[in-house]
Amino acid sequence: MSQFRALAGVLKGGRVGGRQWLRGCVGGGGGGGPTRRWVDPRRGCSSEVATVPSTVASSSSYVEEMYFAWLEDHKNVHESWDTFFRNIQASSPSGEAGERRPSALLQGRVLSHSPDMAQKVVEDHLAVHTLIRAYQIRGHHVAQLDPLGILEADLDSFVPSDLITTIDKLGFYGLDESDLDRTFQLPPTTFIGGGDTTLPLREIIRRLETSYCGHIGVEFMFINNVDQCQWIRQKIETPGIMQFTNAEKRTLLARLIRSTRFEDFLARKWSSEKRFGLEGCEVLIPALKTIIDKSSAAGIDSVIMGMPHRGRLNVLANVIRKDLDQIFCQFDSKLEAADEGSGDVKYHLGMHHERINRETDKNITLSLMANPSHLEAVDPVVQGKTKAEQFYRGDAQGKKVMSILMHGDAAFAGQGVVYETFHLSELPSYTTHGTIHVVVNNQIGFTTDPRVARSSPYPTDVARVVNAPIFHVNADDPEAVMYVCRVAAEWRTTFNKDVVIDLVSYRRFGHNEMDEPMFTQPLMYKQIRRQEHVLKKYSDKLIAEGVVTLQEFEEEVAKYDKICEEAYTSSKDEKILHIRDWLDSPWPDFFTEEGEPKSMSCVPTGLDEEVLHHIGQTASSVPLDDFKIHPGVSRILRGRAELVKNRQMDWALGEYMAFGSLLKEGIHVRLSGQDVERGTFSHRHHVLHDQEVDKRFCVPMNHLWDNQAPYTVCNSSLSEYGVLGFELGFAMASPNALILWEAQFGDFHNTAQCIIDQFISPGQAKWVRNNGIVLLLPHGMEGMGPEHSSARPERFLQMSKDDPDHFPEFSGDFEVQQLYDCNWIVVNCSTPANYCHVVRRQILLPFRKPLIIFTPKSLLRHPDARSSFDDLAKGTKFKRLIPDESPASQNPAQVKRVIFCTGKVYYELAKERKRQELEKDIAIIRLEQISPFPFDLVRAEAEKYASAELVWCQEEHKNMGYYDYVRPRFLTVVANKRPVWYVGRDPAAAPATGNKSTHLNELKRFMDTAFNLSAFQGASL
Fold first, then answer.
1. Same domain, 117 and 228
2. C or N: which end of the chain has fewer Cβ atoms within 10 Å?
3. Pair (313, 262) in one structural domain
4. Domain match, 901 and 1002 both
5. What is the pLDDT of residue 161?
6. What is the distance between the alpha carbons of residues 717 and 427, in angstroms, rounded to a whole number?
7. How far apart are CA 334 and CA 118, in angstroms?
8. Are residues 688 and 733 in the same domain?
9. 568-589 average pLDDT score
10. What is its main location (predicted)?
11. Do 885 and 863 lie in a common domain?
12. What is the domain-level CATH number for residue 293?
């Protein structure tokens, strides 16, 4: 009876006894099936809709009601009921229909035999409809997806009981073998009929198996959108839809030849080299080219791709079309590194290339992003770069720029950044309007069996969280793969949503070419050794079909082999490795043709007083009329106005000055992170929300100037790894933009450490990639416990590449030369003006370096942490070191101790010095730029106070913070001729104590040490 009670799934618009089936009230498309309800037409889809009782649905009176509704108007019932009642009339004996009323006919022929006749016919129709739905939902579980035929792609050999794999399973639906030749009405949620509305059950099952159980398995019924589900059904179920012309088949064969022979050539020439070849999934190359062709035809002219290392060289050669000699020369062990460094291994590098797409005769730009061995780390980076290109081109719907991400099966299932990236896919400030994901499914991860590598049936199940359709396809059926790629490209064009292609394949060799896979997968690799290559199988197929001749095939193979041999000969002329040839994000208008900065100087970062006042007034007002803001925000704005009136600024105003002035100069500013619109500490309020009108908000920063650049400020998802990667990718697109990511608390970058370690810190050394991303990391020991105190400055400083034992000597601008040589800049500003200066300097420099800023918490509102407009006046600039300005600085010969420090602790030291009345005896100097270390300025201060004790004071524990970084550099500055003492907290395992009393006692202890002139207890550096 369950099939009978599923009636709502096949009825639409049927009116019975004053009640009506309303299709709009039926949930569509989802795996759980439609909601089955009776609806009062006067109430529509209201909360008073009642579920259909099974007793009503199964009673003969119900059938009679349906029949009377049909007599009134055949359109009152679903087509299946219409067919049923017509068949009843047609099957009556001659003359009977004329002798008896239709209602009497029904009573005599149907109701008198109920349930033996009417109920059986109805149930059989509903059973067939349920059967069709079962194949749509679960047909992929029995699809022939594994080219090896030894594993189940879904890790389960169980066949769902509702799929008709054997005749005896007909009984599940109350059917038997005698029903196979009966004709049944098809529901409107299937396209298997083609132009027919009825089919014999035998043919229905055959067509369902052809559509859903062949070399393509589709997961889509979980999508909660009826139109999208119907679109996919039409692409999968329509008989004969997967057709290719002979020309298309020849193109596919030629691409498969290139893919296969490229790997064969590398294997012959460099048999002992790691290259992470594509053997076993050679179909990836024609698959990508099909996606690009189809997308190009739809208007896409820029494709940004990311992938792991398996198959990267093949993709570079045959998709991006990098010169083969440039690839082959990378295998020369005698190749010398160019000036810019040794770069990365060849299977990590990227490429940017603009060429003609021969299938569409349109220009297309292809970028393959460089990626380390952290396989999925590149995912959000690709998305960020794609978003940036769309933004700068005004491509609001992703009709010109798109992304393709390639994955390995084990990494796709196992690495959390995949999930984080998917969850950015439809967020307004992060969407790229649909990404095509291609999974190279080796059915193995390194040496790990998939049955112990994931808990989900498929490696692609993570995509279900965003309702992305998933196409599983047997990679040894090239035509099935090409068809799926076409459909995926059309899906992205039509719906601007993510889609996944799962290429179920195998890995012919081990993890790399030197690895022995038989140690751990003996049965799999015995089968692989017997496995016929896909090129051989497909070429034999086309030759048998008469599409190509054997001679034509062999000529095509010989043609590509000759290309490879000529490139190999040419590659021997290369003597120097130029990583710039592999650059994935070139900035041709920013650098010279040789890739050098166009100058080596930085203009002052100060501003006109008029500009400061204008920005300040906008920052302290609401640009829109009749806009109701929160009283607390009103107080903040009034406070800002008062500061502007007094020519002063706090931290929030200093940031406003930096961003606003850059917007005036045409620099796009983008700030993203968790709660950045308001600010974690409720100090920023760059987005004002109307308190009475939902979704009405105002961004004053976008109302500064008539022709200003846009300001983007966006709260992110609760992700660090994915979002920081996204912003890094965004910053790659253009040097003329300020891209900032702010952590909610500084230590939250812990979960984004992979992006910092693999991309930001070494990016230029590995990939000659300049990047100006800014990290804002709130930092400070304020008794908030170990989780919200330290931004871990020691990690950033440890990865800074300046030499601690060498005092740098530069001609020209020492500051700019030092910045040019570093891998990133680390600062801890103590004044709003200096914060403004360093942010502006980030853009005014003639090159780009990542900037790490340890931002304050309590200093955001500290009364002493203020700056005058004079500190931002025309001609001023960032102060790498702020010297002492107390009375001690007027008489340096009398100073007994000089305390060097950085950040918030300065204000605590200054307060304690004043309390103890030591302002003539002790000087306090602030290092604002910690890395690269300001050797020149520190030396000048040390020489100024030649007879004073030198102390380094920090609030962090001794084994953390800046101590290990500054220690050897101070010794270099004083040439080991003067002792430098340490003052601060003792070593500890946690960044801070969770006890407020302990925190204060620690602070008092090291303050007493810092100012104890008679009995100094510090430890020597």
1. yes
2. N
3. yes
4. yes
5. 86
6. 8
7. 85
8. yes
9. 75
10. mitochondrion
11. no
12. 3.40.50.970
**Residue among 150, 994, 84 at smallest CA distance from 526:** 150
pLDDT of residue 453: 87
pLDDT in tens, 310-357: 999 999 999 999 889 888 888 877 766 654 555 777 777 888 889 999
Residues 351 and 368: their CA atoms lie apart, in Å, by: 5
Beta bridge partners of 20: 15, 39
pLDDT band at 10 (very low <50, low <70, confident <90, very high): very low
Residues 6+ apart with CB under 8 A from 330: 346, 577
Distance between alpha carbon 967 and the CA centroid of its chain, in Å?
A: 40
Distance of CA 752 to the CA centre of its chain: 13
Query: How many CB atoms are closer than 10 A to CB 458?
Result: 28
DSSP string computed for 741-804: EE-SSGGGGGGGHHHIIIIITTHHHHH------EEEEE---SSS-TTSS---HHHHHHT--S-T
The pLDDT tens digits for 922-943 are 999 999 999 999 999 999 999 9
The more confident residue out of 449 and 140 is 140
Q: Are 475 and 409 in contact (CB under 8 A)?
A: no
Cα distance between residue 192 and residue 673, in whole Å? 48
pLDDT at 922: 96
Provide the domain count of the chain.
4
**pLDDT band at 113, cuts 50/70/90?**
very low
196-238 confidence digits (pLDDT tens): 999 999 999 999 999 999 999 999 999 999 999 999 999 999 9
- pLDDT number for residue 511: 77
DSSP string, 27-75: --SSTT----EEB-TTT-S-TT-EEPPHHHHTSHHHHHHHHHHHHH-GG
Give the number of residues written for the chain: 1021
Q: Which residues contact 99 (CB under 8 A, 6 or more apart)?
A: none
- Sequence letter at residue 576: I
- Six-digit token pair at 312? 């990267």
Residue 601 identity: S
On whether residue 861 sits in a domain, the answer given is: yes
Query: For residue 883, what is the DSSP state?
Result: -
3-state secondary structure 294-311: HHHHCCCCEEEEECCCCC
Range of the domain at 908: 881-1020
Q: Among the listed ranges 36-40, 294-298, 764-768, 855-859, which one has the minimum average pLDDT value?
A: 36-40
Helix (H) or strand (E) holding 705: none
The DSSP 8-state label assigned to residue 758 in this structure reads I
The answer to whether residues 45 and 76 belong to one domain is yes
Tokens of 840: 């502006």
pLDDT value for 340: 52
Sign of CA dihedral 465, 468, 473, 478: negative
User: Does residue 796 lie within any of the structural domains?
Assistant: no
596's CB contacts (< 8 A; 6+ apart) are none
DSSP string computed for 956-989: EETTSTTHHHHHHHHHHHTTT-S-EEEEEEPP-S
Residues 6+ apart with CB under 8 A from 548: 250, 253, 539, 542
595 assigned to some structural domain = no
CB 517 within 8 A of CB 523: no
- The strand pairing partners of 38, in sequence order, are 50
Cα torsion 703, 708, 710, 711 to 10°: value is -60
How far, CA to CA in Å, does 160 sit from each of 127, 134, 164, 208? 16, 9, 9, 15
Tell me, yes or no, whether 29 and 155 share the same domain. Answer: yes
Rounded distance between C-alpha atoms, residue 293 and residue 289, angstroms: 6
Contact of 650 with 833, CB cutoff 8 Å: no
Alpha helical stretches, state H, 670-735: 721-733
194 dihedral zone (left: phi>0; alpha: psi -120 to 50; beta):
left
DSSP state of 511: S
Q: Does 520 lie in the same domain as 387?
A: yes
Of 192, 211, 237, which residue sits at a domain end?
237
Q: How far is CA 711 from CA 141, 362, 843, 930, in A?
A: 49, 33, 15, 29
> For residue range 658-687, what is the model confidence (pLDDT) as tens digits?
999 999 999 999 999 999 999 999 999 999
Question: 3-state DSSP call for residue 174?
Answer: coil
